[in-house]
Predict the structure.
Amino acid sequence: MQPWIELGKTLRDGELDPRLQELVMTRASQINGCAFCIHHHVIDARRFGETEDRLHLLGAWRESTLYTDREKAALGWTEALTLISLTHAPDETYAALSRHFTQAEQVKLTLLIGLVNAWNRIKIGFRAVHPAEAKAAA
């Protein structure tokens, strides 16, 4: 697991805004239904200054005016890659990404999306319980 953890640290220490990273990771985790990861990333998003309104509306980001065009491009890319077997990463989604992110940022964002999807599969597959549920069960 150490290489996965190190990759995460490398990506998080990069040029992408931590709030954007948390939005992306929360959205992928919502799509995948990973309660453990949603819980984790919402807490981190709040720590980085994310608002409750934006967290509540994340599932409807396309219809909300609370997200910037850059954030919408990242969220669109997140959904396209998370649902790759259905979307095949459409050209228009990639074009939107290219308008708002440098090539280096595109690579980091794509790696981040791949990483969070892998973590979702690990946490769901091994039946990880998010902390709030674990406290209630105790």
Q: What stands out?
A: The chain has nine helices and no strands. Residues 93 and 138 are 44 Å apart (CA to CA). The chain has a mean pLDDT of 94.
